[in-house]
Design brief:
heterodimer, A: 152 residues, alpha+beta, Arc Repressor Mutant, subunit A, 2 domains, two-stranded parallel ribbon, 34% helix, globular, B: 178 residues, alpha/beta, Rossmann fold, five-stranded parallel sheet, 5 strands
Chain lengths: 152, 178
């Protein structure tokens, strides 16, 4: 077989947003200050980057149909629920914990395990008395929520 | 009209079978490439190229019978680790073909750039993950036989393939899959 190289899409924003795709599945996404070269060869990735650009312009885009992977069964269960939170809406760690019958801290751990921020919108999970943490930095979380018109 | 289709066939499964059935109905002859032919005895690639030739050959007997005994060539293809040369490597080892069937984005890209007509098969995505799932089930002692044609179950039994995969998985200190 040809040597599979992951595809990489990059969207300019306050920080650059990068997503890596292999065989039509988004495997990883992250924010970076560096310029990253794009490698796109599938229609899937072309379509995805268009949607991401719309999203980072502040338009309502739903990524629920995008195939992703979850690191563990537990985090997958929690992150599936998080995918159900719509653009511009938030839920609390506590609220999600009640739904999965676990603790808010465990929900926080599952959020940290999310390999694909933005695509799986873990930034829409916040504390009851504040914004909560974010592995890419709370500043990024605040900017994402502002982008979606959420008042914290 | 002769078509080309490539897979790793680790192992040959019903996803491959459906795609090949579709191709057999549309073309006169088919070249089936066995990808990563040099690989064997690893969790990702447990079976040798020769074993995979046997799986494909036995599995397509049914398809041939259904389609007036279409000619099929089975060609093991080693990796070249240089994507810009990959298409010429493949074409140098295979009988001439006119059309390529694939859902692998990179395979599609490389053949299109080389000027080939590429058709997408109907089975999308599933084909990549079915092999992984079957190998996982084999290692974890779960039922995998319903994901491959009966003839392939026989081949895997003859070569004691499940035991080999489990042995490899046990000696491999990597991640646990069960």
């Amino acid at each position: 077989m040809p040597t599979q190289i992951p595809e990489r899409v990059c969207v300019e924003w306050h920080l650059n947003f990068v997503a890596e795709i292999r065989n039509g599945v988004v495997e990883r996404s992250y924010f970076t200050e560096r310029d990253v070269e794009e490698t796109i060869f599938s229609e899937f990735s072309e379509e995805l980057v268009k949607r991401l650009r719309r999203y980072f312009k502040g338009r309502e885009v739903d990524f629920r149909d995008v195939p992703v992977t979850y690191p563990t069964d537990f985090s997958g269960r929690v992150l599936e629920i998080v995918r159900g939170i719509s653009f511009g809406k938030v839920r609390s760690y506590f609220d999600i914990a009640n739904e999965v019958k676990t603790s808010p801290r465990a929900v926080g751990v599952a959020m940290k395990m999310n390999r694909v921020p933005v695509i799986v919108p873990c930034h829409r999970v916040v504390a009851r008395n504040g914004i909560g943490g974010y592995s890419c930095g709370v500043g990024v979380k605040r900017m994402l929520l502002e982008l979606e018109g959420v008042k914290m | 009209m002769r078509a080309f289709f490539i897979g790793r066939f680790q192992p040959y499964h019903l996803g491959h079978h459906e795609v090949l059935r579709e191709i057999f109905e549309e073309v006169d002859e088919i070249v089936i490439g066995i990808g990563s032919a040099q690989e064997s005895h690893t969790i990702e690639n447990p079976f040798t190229a020769g074993e995979r030739v046997m799986m494909v050959d036995r599995a397509i007997e049914d398809l041939k019978r259904e389609t007036d005994f279409r000619k099929a060539y089975i060609i093991p293809l080693e990796d070249v680790y240089r994507n810009s040369l990959w298409v010429s490597h493949v074409t140098s080892l295979c009988p001439y073909f006119d059309v390529v069937y694939s859902n692998n984005p990179l395979v599609i890209r490389l053949f299109r750039e080389a000027g080939f007509e590429v058709k997408k098969t109907k089975m999308i995505n599933r084909i990549y993950y079915q092999g992984t799932e079957i190998r996982r089930r084999m290692i974890c002692n779960e039922k995998w036989e319903d994901l491959v044609p009966e003839s392939v179950v026989q081949v895997i039994k003859e070569i004691d393939g499940v035991k080999r995969l489990r042995d490899i998985a046990n000696t491999d200190t990597g991640k646990s899959v069960c």
